[in-house]
Structures are given as structure tokens and as C-alpha cells.
Amino acid sequence: MRILLTNDDGIMAEGIYTLAKELEKDHEVIIVAPEIQRSAQSHAITLFQPLVVKEVELEGIKSKAYSISGTPADCVRTGLEVLADGPVDMVFSGTNIGLNSGMDILYSGTVSAAIEANIYKIPSIAVSAELVDGNAKFDIAAKYAKKVLEESKEQLSKSNIVLNINIPYRNEEDILGIKVCKIGGVIYDYYFMDYNEKGEKILKLKGRRETEIEKDTDRYYLKEGYVTVTPLHYDLTNFKLLEEVKKWF
């Protein structure tokens, strides 16, 4: 299988390095990732300046790797249209530093890169690992990402969807299994106000404002110790309301 691998944490991030090492054991991998950290870029693309592409050598990685002076979505676009030099069967995005659960998927460059592949009608998998005290279990995340791929690739290859995978911060023997579930509720970043030396107001993010965790969601099962898998699709149409809204006009 030919896999395009990207992320939003940058070409030198530990998460993408660890995932590449695991995937290239059994698959052909092409790595195309941002040259710098581009987290929370959502689905932004670069319109008004050219993209700079550089071939990069990653120690211990046999796969070809490129850095792009753009966003995660840019990486998928350039990877599929120019750098892959042939058809790609699957796109992986990750492993992200920190979870992409709940409504965080709307801001996530990791998930948006996977969705960009979906727009090209290529199935994709986004992978994120919980961050605790500056650490994440990237090795365990890579193993579970590959496990999900091997168990679902036949069905996934026939479906134009994204699988969003989140891995809790637990030792491998303490993970309770895999749960397929819906996304959880909103988790807010909130601001506090300060002043700079000019007396101007400065707003800074100050962590997370947690909301109540709904049962049977990714946030719920991650807290319980499960790896979560949520199928996503880029078409945001509310089909249940489509006919009703037509009647309004």
C-alpha cells in the first residue's frame, strides 16, 4: 500500500517520525509535512505566496521526506498532486502531540489534513496521542494506528471517509481496547487579559474550560482508558433538515 504521511506539528516532530518508522515496515511511505509547527491551522491553505518544498533526510527513516512552507492541507495537496509521483492508497496524518477529541477536530490541522485527502476521494486516518506533563505515548499510538489500518483497510479502501483515532496516555497493557464512538462536546480554550509595556491590552490563552463529559463519546472513553475511533466526513450538510429547510423558501 502507498501511504502519504503528514502532520501539523512539523517535519521534525517525534510523532510523525515514530509513525513513519512503524508504517514503513510493511508499506511504501511518502512523508510531506510542514517545515515548522502549524497546529490549530484547521483547513487553511496558502493562496497569496508560493510554497517552498525541500527534501529532508530523517535519520533512521528510509522513506522520502519533504518539508513544505505551508499548512497541513497544503502538504496533502502538494503531496498528492506533485510529490507522490503516482497514485496514493491512503493518507495518514499524525501522530499529533495532544488529543483531537470533541470539537477540537474543527480547529485541528491534523484532522483537516486527513479531511483534505477525503476531498481527493482518498481514505485517510488521523492519529493523536494524549499529552500529559509534556509527554505522549507515540510508540503505542503508532502501533494502534497500524492495527486499525490492518483491520479496516479492506473496508476503508472502499469508503471515502476519515477515521479519527485518539490514544490515551496509558501503558500498552493498561489500554482497555478500541471503542468506535461519536465525538464529544465542546472543550473551550479561554483567555485572560494582560497589558504590555505600551499599555495595550493583551489576550492570552489560559488552558481548557472543561464541559460535562457525555457518555459514549470519544472524551468519555478516552478517560476510561480506551483508544477511540470516530468516522468523519467533510460534507457538513445536515441531511435530516434539508427537505424541511427547502419548505422555508
Features of the shown structure:
249 residues, alpha/beta, Stationary-phase Survival Protein Sure Homolog, Chain: A, nine-stranded mixed beta sheet, two-stranded antiparallel ribbon, 6 helices, globular, exopolyphosphatase activity, EC 3.1.3.5, metal-binding, 5'-nucleotidase activity, cytoplasm
Topology, element by element:
Layout: E1 2-6, H1 14-23, E2 28-34, E3 53-56, E4 64-68, H2 72-83, E5 90-97, H3 109-119, E6 124-129, H4 138-156, E7 162-167, E8 178-180, E9 188-195, E10 201-209, H5 218-224, E11 227-232, H6 239-248
Parallel strand pairs: 1-2, 1-5, 2-4, 5-6, 6-7, 8-11
Antiparallel strand pairs: 3-4, 7-11, 9-10
Catalytic activity: a ribonucleoside 5'-phosphate + H2O = a ribonucleoside + phosphate
Subcellular location: Cytoplasm
GO molecular function: 3'-nucleotidase activity; 5'-nucleotidase activity; exopolyphosphatase activity; metal ion binding; nucleotide binding
Outline:
With 249 residues, this protein is an alpha/beta fold. 28% of the residues lie in helices and 27% in strands.
Secondary-structure-derived class: alpha/beta
Which band does the percent of strand residues land in?
25-35%
| CATH T-level topology | Stationary-phase Survival Protein Sure Homolog, Chain: A
Known CATH architecture: 3-Layer(aba) Sandwich
Radius of gyration: 19 Å
Give a written overview of the molecule.
By secondary structure, the protein is an alpha/beta fold. The protein has one domain: Survival protein SurE-like phosphatase/nucleotidase (Stationary-phase Survival Protein Sure Homolog, Chain: A, 3-Layer(aba) Sandwich), CATH 3.40.1210.10. The chain has helices at 14-23, 72-83, 109-119, 138-156, 218-224, 239-248, and strands at residues 2-6, 28-34, 53-56, 64-68, 90-97, 124-129, 162-167, 178-180, 188-195, 201-209, 227-232. Helix 1 packs across helix 4 and helix 2 runs parallel beside helix 3. The longest helix is centred in the middle third of the chain and has 19 residues, at 138-156. It is globular and about 50 Å long. The model has no long low-confidence stretch (mean pLDDT 92). It is found in: Cytoplasm.
